[in-house]
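Deliverable D2.4 — example input (structure tokens):
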């Protein structure tokens, strides 16, 4: 027992010293902008007393940390139980069994702990019944100082604290999960109390939130990257987008000198357009004006999402990226070209024809998956895409097209005959196709060769009629037992 207590005490003291150091450093950073924003919630019976100076606030924070050692130990135990590796015997003391492991990770434990303490202080500051203004100054300054970059606790835990401030609610005190449905375990068909489905911006909390966002925007690149991550998460809260002025911030950051900031903004575009199509479109235009390679690649990566949300308005982005010189961008754009068929069939085909003659093999390869849809719309291959792509000499392309032709021969001998006729007229080498056909069905290749030479009739296959849904429900539905019997017959499960 003494060994247990000794190991626990040693780790506790080391972590406490690290937390105290983090606290001082964070408060020093967080109070560089002075004065701090006013608390969102106040008790009218008690006047708000602003801290005298940053140093005074730091001393208050250290005093609270030292005075409430019980709270520190409780949170330390919770974090240790959370982070230690899985242990077979849950009765083992983690401080004893994992002493060496914890000893090497005291910095990680201290970081989690300082955020947990800040959450506790903010909860006291936002208590609607007894708001603690002293802890408000500490929590807002500490959050500002702890928000140092887009990694670890500052992203998600820091965002949660920002969100709490903006809505004027204690951290973790609101519930905004979607309403459970019959497919979910927690669904209660008899529930009559409605769940909270959203949040409400708090007038004074918004002001404090805007102060914090401005602190990050006017700081170094790492903090601006964190700001974009927070905004990406805030886009899930439409109630806060307008009050916090997120679009205005994003518009300014689109011109940020740090390329990674602009790259991260590209990942916000989908949600931004969902919220406000016009404003989101303008953000995309601003990013497309940038010439940095990483930004161009980022825009190529989100091009599909832009097509789905902007429709024809995303075409200028596509045309601009299609003329790029970077092979990686061209590879992504050629894949995205398949989305054009949902916008305009003619434009889609024109791009297929154009890209089929592209110099880069990867561009031509990425067009092969589109050939199936192309043959559905143009069974006569009026643009002669098949022979053109076959002749380019790329074996990967030919392999994929041979697989497509084999499937076509199983479905429609008429279409297959037209395609191999075109290939032969263009002088394409069909030897690999014949070998593949013979491997699947001996003699099938020779039958088609004889037909091509005029020595035999065209081989016939039983053409499969593909079911095309009318998108209308039938007037009557079969009973379940009848449907199962039909399925058994089709699968030869009957005795």
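Example output (designed residues):
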């Amino acid at each position: 027992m003494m060994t247990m207590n000794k190991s626990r005490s040693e780790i506790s003291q080391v972590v406490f010293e690290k937390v105290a150091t983090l606290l001082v450093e964070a408060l020093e950073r967080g109070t560089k902008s002075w004065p701090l924003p006013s608390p969102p919630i106040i008790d009218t019976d008690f006047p708000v007393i602003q801290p005298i100076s940053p140093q005074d606030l730091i001393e208050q924070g250290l005093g609270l940390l030292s005075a409430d050692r019980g709270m520190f130990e409780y949170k330390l135990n919770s974090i240790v139980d959370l982070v230690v590796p899985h242990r077979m015997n849950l009765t083992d003391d983690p401080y004893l069994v994992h002493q060496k492991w914890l000893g090497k990770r005291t910095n990680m434990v201290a970081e989690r702990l300082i955020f947990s303490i800040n959450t506790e202080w903010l909860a006291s500051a936002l208590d609607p019944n007894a708001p603690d203004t002293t802890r408000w100054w500490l929590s807002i300054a500490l959050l500002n100082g702890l928000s140092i970059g887009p990694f670890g606790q500052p992203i998600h835990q820091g965002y949660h604290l920002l969100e709490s401030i903006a809505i004027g609610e204690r951290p973790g005190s609101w519930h905004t999960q979607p309403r459970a449905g019959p497919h979910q375990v927690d669904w209660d068909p008899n529930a009559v109390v409605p769940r909270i489905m959203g949040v409400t911006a708090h007038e004074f909390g918004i002001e404090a939130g805007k102060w914090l966002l401005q602190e990050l925007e006017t700081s170094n690149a790492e903090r601006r990257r964190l700001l974009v991550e927070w905004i990406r998460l805030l886009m899930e809260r439409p109630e806060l987008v307008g009050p916090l002025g997120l679009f205005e911030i994003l518009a300014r950051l689109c011109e940020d000198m740090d390329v990674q900031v602009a790259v991260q903004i590209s990942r916000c575009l989908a949600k931004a357009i969902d919220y406000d199509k016009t404003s989101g479109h303008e953000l995309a235009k601003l990013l497309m004006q940038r010439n940095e390679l990483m930004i161009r690649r980022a825009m190529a990566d989100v091009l599909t999402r832009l097509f789905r949300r902007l429709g024809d308005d995303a075409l200028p982005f596509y045309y601009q990226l299609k003329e790029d010189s970077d092979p990686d961008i061209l590879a992504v754009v050629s894949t995205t070209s398949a989305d054009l068929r949902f916008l305009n069939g003619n434009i889609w085909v024109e791009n297929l024809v154009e890209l089929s003659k592209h110099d880069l093999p990867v561009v031509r390869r990425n067009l092969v998956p589109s050939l199936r849809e192309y043959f559905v719309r143009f069974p006569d291959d009026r643009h002669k895409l098949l022979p053109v792509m076959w002749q380019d000499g790329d074996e990967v392309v030919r392999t994929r097209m041979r697989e497509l032709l084999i499937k076509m021969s199983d479905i429609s001998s008429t279409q297959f005959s037209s395609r191999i006729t075109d290939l032969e007229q263009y002088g394409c080498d069909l030897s690999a196709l014949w070998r593949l056909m013979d491997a699947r069905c001996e003699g099938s290749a020779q039958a088609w060769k004889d037909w091509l030479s005029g020595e035999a009739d065209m081989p016939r296959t039983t053409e499969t009629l593909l079911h095309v849904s009318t998108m209308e429900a039938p007037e009557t539905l079969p009973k379940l037992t009848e449907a199962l019997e039909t399925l058994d017959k089709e699968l030869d499960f009957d005795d």
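Residues 1-173+199-244 form one domain.
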